[in-house]
Amino acid sequence: MKNKRGFASDNNAGVHPDILNAIIGANKGHTIAYGDDEYTRRAVKIIKNLLGDDIDVYFVFIGTAANVLGLTAVTRSYNSIICAESSHMHQDECGAPENYSGCKLLSVPTENGKLYLDGIKHHMYGIDFEHHSQPKVLSVTQATEMGTVYSKEEMDEIAGFAHDNGMIVHMDGARIANAAITMNSGLREITRDVGVDVLSFGGTKNGMMYGEAIVFFRKDLAPDFKYIRKQGMQLASKMRFIAAQFEAYLSNDLWMKNASHANEMAQLLAAEVENIPEVKITQNVEANGVFAIIPKESIPVLQEKFFFYVWNEETSEVRWMTSYDTTPEDIARFVQLLKKTLRQKKDT
Amino acid sequence: MKNKRGFASDNNAGVHPDILNAIIGANKGHTIAYGDDEYTRRAVKIIKNLLGDDIDVYFVFIGTAANVLGLTAVTRSYNSIICAESSHMHQDECGAPENYSGCKLLSVPTENGKLYLDGIKHHMYGIDFEHHSQPKVLSVTQATEMGTVYSKEEMDEIAGFAHDNGMIVHMDGARIANAAITMNSGLREITRDVGVDVLSFGGTKNGMMYGEAIVFFRKDLAPDFKYIRKQGMQLASKMRFIAAQFEAYLSNDLWMKNASHANEMAQLLAAEVENIPEVKITQNVEANGVFAIIPKESIPVLQEKFFFYVWNEETSEVRWMTSYDTTPEDIARFVQLLKKTLRQKKDT
Amino acid sequence: MKNKRGFASDNNAGVHPDILNAIIGANKGHTIAYGDDEYTRRAVKIIKNLLGDDIDVYFVFIGTAANVLGLTAVTRSYNSIICAESSHMHQDECGAPENYSGCKLLSVPTENGKLYLDGIKHHMYGIDFEHHSQPKVLSVTQATEMGTVYSKEEMDEIAGFAHDNGMIVHMDGARIANAAITMNSGLREITRDVGVDVLSFGGTKNGMMYGEAIVFFRKDLAPDFKYIRKQGMQLASKMRFIAAQFEAYLSNDLWMKNASHANEMAQLLAAEVENIPEVKITQNVEANGVFAIIPKESIPVLQEKFFFYVWNEETSEVRWMTSYDTTPEDIARFVQLLKKTLRQKKDT
Amino acid sequence: MKNKRGFASDNNAGVHPDILNAIIGANKGHTIAYGDDEYTRRAVKIIKNLLGDDIDVYFVFIGTAANVLGLTAVTRSYNSIICAESSHMHQDECGAPENYSGCKLLSVPTENGKLYLDGIKHHMYGIDFEHHSQPKVLSVTQATEMGTVYSKEEMDEIAGFAHDNGMIVHMDGARIANAAITMNSGLREITRDVGVDVLSFGGTKNGMMYGEAIVFFRKDLAPDFKYIRKQGMQLASKMRFIAAQFEAYLSNDLWMKNASHANEMAQLLAAEVENIPEVKITQNVEANGVFAIIPKESIPVLQEKFFFYVWNEETSEVRWMTSYDTTPEDIARFVQLLKKTLRQKKDT
What we know:
4 copies of one chain form a homotetramer.
Chain A: H1 17-26, H2 38-51, E1 56-60, H3 63-73, E2 79-84, H4 88-91, H5 96-101, E3 104-108, H6 117-121, E4 134-141, H7 152-164, E5 168-173, H8 176-183, E6 198-201, E7 212-216, H9 225-231, H10 240-249, H11 254-273, E8 280-281, E9 289-293, H12 298-305, E10 309-312, E11 317-321, H13 328-347
Parallel strand pairs in A: 2-3, 2-4, 4-5, 5-6
Antiparallel strand pairs in A: 1-7, 6-7, 8-9, 9-11, 10-11
Helix pairs in contact in A: 1-10, 2-10, 8-11, 11-13, 12-13
């Protein structure tokens, strides 16, 4: 029961064996705490190899912290941050961005989790007017919280707009690996090359135990970030265990293999359910999530056997996330149960 | 080189094998994220068995967060927090307590890391006077940052004073295990039984990889703490891996064995150096730290081979911390080098 | 030039002579600072006579502070505050509510400046879910920033909803006097009697020099507010001069006379322009503001002679505020110029 | 009774007639709100004439806000601010500096209200060490809270030290006028010319009704301060009434006359009591305050007729402040009562 499988979240999965082995391997003797160690230097170097030498990289514990501290670093409290209404930072961080940075979040309604120029421009007024929070950051999530992926052209357009207006582009990359697979691109091409200035580089949802990286693509953005991280309660003492995870994650294409598998499983799940008449898929399946409207009564029956969340109570829309360890059998069993449940419902 | 040993900090040590095994054991299948899982329930139950059923327990990542969020939970921003000048929260958290809670820290100079009534009373004025921050929390560290331990009588006295004045007693228990060993007492006897209301219950310095617990000994103190933790960027997604560590740590007397060993190593180190004329031990060795003044010139020579920190540049006082994995050989080698270094110095 | 008149804001007006005389009258000898004085006691008593004895009243300097500190008093930082998108606290306080209280502001799009249940309910989810800011305050502005007024029935409905959901009703009453006149009601009937818990009671826009009151209609809401005010940088040393203004403002029906006049002038202005074909009044004129769309080219011509603000650049909507000292001549001159300008435009 | 005179605080005094007249004079017609007006421009110009053209000047409501926002402007939350233990910002602002700026205040014990190098240096460690708040501001009060005055040499020494260490010098000038009189110097000579970077320029304690100025002596220090002031809830709508006060205050040497008189009255009071055997003056009388230890039993008897505060309950030290409107008769009556009270005490 405890180990019931499901599609609730990619962080219900455990740790990939290669990453766990890296942790075990790092557990040797004494190492200077707080990041002044070889493991950390190696992990940073690997990230620089991927994203460019002229960047700053800092490890923190979780994605919320990566977002919040990254945003705090590049703002003053009188700034505003424009984001999608569906974004994690707006919906699921319990107000941490406002509370910690002091900034106002300006949310944009969105059909598919993405920001577009129209919605952004709605918030672009009151510039230089002291009564009004000054827009400073445009924050996107890649892949989005709704399982979609910004194309490079979409990113170019909004990042260009941001820069033209003196703003900074932040990317919540909790699922950046899944997006890279979808786009068939390297991490650099879909971040700094399309205008991202600050990246929350996630790993936990793709097979790590804990640990995220904050990447500043310009070294002048946050030269004082080490203080912000420490004061922000995100400086790990035994840093080597985060670093070792990143090293394993970014070696041997593990990040790609994991993300690729999760994406495939989402495609498989979508393919299996899209022809069921009672199931209406609501978003393009571009990463590792499937969003669908299903009959309300079937939900609790399914949840008895599989974890997953209701995304929208009113419309009976659910979210099914796949992960690096989802198996075709998981999907087969789930689809079988889904069909059975819908059939029984029809019969009654 | 990477694995140079030393006495810099008890968190330069790695993870105890039993705890690492517990992590490995927890890596099975899917588990609901964010703490709604069996591992977490079991770990909380073990802590309640130790400290009492009528308490609230929350896991966070690090000690700074345990301190800061615990303090935030029981204060409003117009309160002040009285602590020792040498305390971690005053010296080594980069101002996180003030920044996050909004409170003023009132520090008390201390010879041995402990607070006494005299120093506390110095800050007890301006009560009910709106111009003045209102004292609300008395924070002690057990064992202290200077390797000393409050006796039960000392705790009783200051906790009694705090409660008589409507204040809350917070204990930074980053090294609570070491204190328990020294006092030959259970964790309950040296915390809630001597008046502690909020405990930062540390494990990382005594063999864990990461993770601390915040314990509220009265359930009315922070009924809303789950929001404070989440907004405070300290809610782990894969919580089971913190919980599993605590379970192992608190099983089979592991916490006691580790702390006991570290304390013994400190006694051994002290015994080995106390008769060296150039070494002056400056604090009672009551936990796992030895503070000593040594000739300034010898410090860099020693640091080439062993990690440790200078505590006070002016007086040439150093801090040597032992840990659960310090060996008698580590000490023998270090003392040998120390003697050799001092001899060479004399010869020159 | 310096004293060019206009319709920019009701706080472009000066101080009403009766209020200025009260200030002059209070300037006698020594008085204990910070509010422990007879002037303050008298002013508080007058407010209690109006609004009920069982309330708490605090003076601050400005409306932004009244809003922000009132909200801070009744929230914790993990709460959210629901308000209209057009509200002053969302648009014109430079993010002070988020920055100071730490809370998230959830804005509701609105046609007429008012909140309705539909929009409010859109934000009522994630209750008891620690990832989500918990809705705690419903904030309305009376009269609204768009010159409209909530009816008692409208207030009853949304305040009832708020209370049913354990929320607190905050009213930004920067123009509460204008609303009372419109509703032909006493201040108590349109605040506590319709469910308001916390009121920002404004005076500056209706003839005072500076000073607002924060009223808590339940004494348990903020028993510690004196500290919040002081720490919030809003405790006046020479408090008597705020108190004396409130005393004059609330005596001899001055607040009503001033608001009544301002409202009448808005009606007069609306009547004068509503039949001009190029002018489209966009909001019901229910308080002391007229909102209208006028030809874009006419705006700078008019602004040369009269102060007023463009409300919406895109639609060419302007805002004309009247005040206690607006004269029929001001309006006649303005309408004359408006007509002339539009005529010239047509001729070209 | 209400107008009982005394020596409690220089802000128990009312408003100087010339300043009140300036307020009355400014109450003419409409003026653009929030500082974009002729009164404000004139007042700023006068201050620039006094202190230099290349500065930035902003008006706020009160001294606490001037201190807090000035400090916030030049720091990040991981900084620390070094100040005297007796300073207003440490004792009497209810923790506003920590709460608003996020910074740590490091207080230095002081005999006479002044900072000296020794005490400052005690806090200068942990530089570049991310665990430790980074010292960024040295804050002095001139004249100090204990009625003493820094000499130019004293200021030169500590400001030089601050600048050599990359720090900023903040001066709380709530009583800067009194210091200027004592030093027989202009305001510029005792501020920017001795190294002050940011000045809280007070007026309320020397005859104004409300209003303080924040002066940045380098225009690069806070180019964005207009947002900080607005978000800090300190932007006055009817700004002209603060500006008009400053204009009057700084014209016709009013500020000097007022301060000069207050200082003389302190000298007179000191001269009258210094030979009373039961009175022990504890501080040099260098500005407008007299600190003295008097028999504890006499205090309530005196307080029945005159306002004043006990500075130190333990030592029975009291503080007597004089102000621009203190009269020789006030002092004569007070000294007479003091002598009578002490005599009666002796007789009993």
